[in-house]
Amino acid sequence: MTHSLDTYFQQHRDAHLAELSDYLRIPSVSAVPEHAGDVRRCAEWTADALRRAGCEHVQVLETEGHPVVYGDWLHAPGKPTVLVYGHYDVQPPDPLELWETPPFEPQLRNNKLYARGATDDKGQLFMYIKLVEAWLRTQGTMPVNVKFCIEGEEEVASLHTPPFIETHRELLAADAVVISDNPMIKKGQPAIMYSLRGLIGVEIEVIAANQDLHSGLYGGGVPNAVHALTELLGSMHRPDGTVAVEGFYDAVLPLSPEERQSLANAGEDEEQLRRELGLSALFGEPGFSFVERTTARPTLEVVSISGGFQGEGIKPIVPGRAVAKIACRLVASQKPEEIEAVLERHIQRHTPAGVQAKMKRSLSGNPYLTPIDHPFMRAAAESYADVYGVKPVFTRGGGSIPVVEVFGRLLDAPVVMMGFGLKEENMHAPNEYFDLDNFDLGLRTLARFWDKLGQTRIGQ
Amino acid sequence: MTHSLDTYFQQHRDAHLAELSDYLRIPSVSAVPEHAGDVRRCAEWTADALRRAGCEHVQVLETEGHPVVYGDWLHAPGKPTVLVYGHYDVQPPDPLELWETPPFEPQLRNNKLYARGATDDKGQLFMYIKLVEAWLRTQGTMPVNVKFCIEGEEEVASLHTPPFIETHRELLAADAVVISDNPMIKKGQPAIMYSLRGLIGVEIEVIAANQDLHSGLYGGGVPNAVHALTELLGSMHRPDGTVAVEGFYDAVLPLSPEERQSLANAGEDEEQLRRELGLSALFGEPGFSFVERTTARPTLEVVSISGGFQGEGIKPIVPGRAVAKIACRLVASQKPEEIEAVLERHIQRHTPAGVQAKMKRSLSGNPYLTPIDHPFMRAAAESYADVYGVKPVFTRGGGSIPVVEVFGRLLDAPVVMMGFGLKEENMHAPNEYFDLDNFDLGLRTLARFWDKLGQTRIGQ
């Protein structure tokens, strides 16, 4: 049955790519207020695409931020209901001068489609829309019930999406959530992500004197806000890279030998990575591989710091104020509010004499884990194997898709993260692209996945 | 004889203040390229003022930066020659919104003249011009030979002034250099500065990966440039505030008991200072008072730091680059190039694994010390005592006037630093002003000083 879909995908490939290019032309940059109109236009475009594919009840639903696009097809009674989640917003394209072709003028080069959002996430999301279209045009039906929940704030931390999911629980109810927003191991080696790190973001402000002071008149005799901040930040790590904040690792579950083996299979070529990044050495918690450090272990990173005169040259002052922003990636057993609390306690205990330090909470998202032996996970793995000819590797994601945990918790459904992007596709960087080999193979994989899902008895 | 000068100053007070206000209206901000025309106009204004006062050979001399104004009066054969040094440039007025009245529209309030440059240094320099005028108009002669060397780059580290002094050694040759660019202890208590701290400024750049990296994909597995920089900076101080850079204190001479007593007399009310600065505690090298820490001890201050995304909100990246700028204040026995060398060695030894650190030298100025028993110093002290009714305190300056050491060394002449400003006059800050009580008393003090200098036999 899926062979007729394969044929449909082949025959309509040019039209599909043209349509995807239209999608990518819309600069739906959610972080930039000037693009709010483009973001809304993109939501409408997405809704129209769902309607064209055959979805029903298509709506652009308001949130306090950018809207969510909903649509469904629910004519497979007794079959599982799959909720497809994706996002139509994109990262800012800056720095513009590093793009070989403009970010919002899609270009096909070497079977790769270059544009902001090509892989993250419009290109991958678009495949599901075409999947519905192919099933309905070739079969007149689908083996599963399908719902779409497509948001416009993923690149700005999905601020309004969790409350949206909460208030639309019944509308979104499903037996599984499927997301394609994660990369494969490498070209030809698919992966299914079974875990994501959570995230907290906090800002630390250190205040010394009530103004910057002339370093000639005061230097050496008053606290320096930058010194105090660097001392405070320095107290948060040991020289070997481990986090020295008391209680930070308390809730972290040790990795099982099976998990370590699975992560080793997903492993990077550390030497190649080191060279690509221009580093003399990779660096991190001793006793863990790069993949383990970046996916299965929590981290505390100072993501920005600022203090003193920021112009050209040296203005010899004693800075009265300095600010750092910290992002912690959390793993499955850690709770954001607990980590915020241990951070706050650490700051209270380690603030140097003579200055004040304040912590402001900002981003927050839970980590998530889906059991790898769930029937839907097995169905996804078999579909990849059928099309790509190799078994997918089960991986953990180092990044955060904040809503994944919310979907899992509020809908009480497993989340199947099966990506078709590649790490080298420059998501969040200039010259983002989508390798169209994975567009073609991905459509075939998803066709088989839904076919297999339709044969499972779960969730009824 | 000086009484007739006192009368002259009284009778011409309004005219002098009006003339000074014209001077202060010129926004001679040397740091801002857009003000280059204003700086030159200010040099011309200064030259005209010297001519009006009766100086000869007045010239605006070019440098590679802003020009130097020269003028002299050399008709006192057999008498000492005094070189008056000052600067006609001013600090940038930012932040403008904190000024009660615009920085370049002088305002008289409570016998204080408010304007950028009022005390630093136009107001103090202007007194010497009026001193020449008063001597020549009332006496037709002066008890000393006088030269003026007035630069326009003091607020940007006097970059071109030392080479100017070197190439104009003969023109500038003098028996003493007199400078009024330092504050009194407090109102009613004059001070003569016998030492200034030197200064070096360096920039430290830490490079980790060749780009900022997504903290979800790389966080925990690669070096973070901000972490490495804060660790490196942290290694430069002990928690008690002493500098931990090996060799930093090697050349520092211990303070004699006499010097400590003299500095105690010049001492701040530390409790009041603490309150004014909004600090819970002053802070610095144990075993030294605030005054000692800020004038007689060397310091290492991080004057600015920057790394990671500098916009609003938290962008969860691992920064690939971070920069700090450091200013060290040096005391009399330390050499800038030696301190730069120990800093560079420290950076080489303490750069964390996996990153590169580069140090770039920037500012550099030697410390200076004038023996307090020099006859010219005694003449200055007696003149203050005659007019203010109290003996001046001999102090050390915590700041740097880079050219002081150069004058002393190249002209082989003592430098007499007798200030008429007050610490609370907001030099380098909004609402700078000059307390005109010191303008009046200062003119009378300087009249007596030149009278006494004329009676000394030195330098012939």
UniProtKB/TrEMBL annotation, chains A, B:
<dbReference type="InterPro" id="IPR011650">
    <property type="entry name" value="Peptidase_M20_dimer"/>
</dbReference>
<keyword id="KW-0378">Hydrolase</keyword>
<dbReference type="InterPro" id="IPR002933">
    <property type="entry name" value="Peptidase_M20"/>
</dbReference>
<protein>
    <submittedName>
        <fullName>Dipeptidase</fullName>
        <ecNumber>3.4.13.-</ecNumber>
    </submittedName>
</protein>
<feature type="domain" description="Peptidase M20 dimerisation">
    <location>
        <begin position="194"/>
        <end position="353"/>
    </location>
</feature>
<dbReference type="Pfam" id="PF01546">
    <property type="entry name" value="Peptidase_M20"/>
</dbReference>
<dbReference type="InterPro" id="IPR051458">
    <property type="entry name" value="Cyt/Met_Dipeptidase"/>
</dbReference>
<dbReference type="GO" id="GO:0016805">
    <property type="term" value="F:dipeptidase activity"/>
</dbReference>
<dbReference type="Pfam" id="PF07687">
    <property type="entry name" value="M20_dimer"/>
</dbReference>
<keyword id="KW-0479">Metal-binding</keyword>
<keyword id="KW-0224">Dipeptidase</keyword>
<keyword id="KW-0645">Protease</keyword>
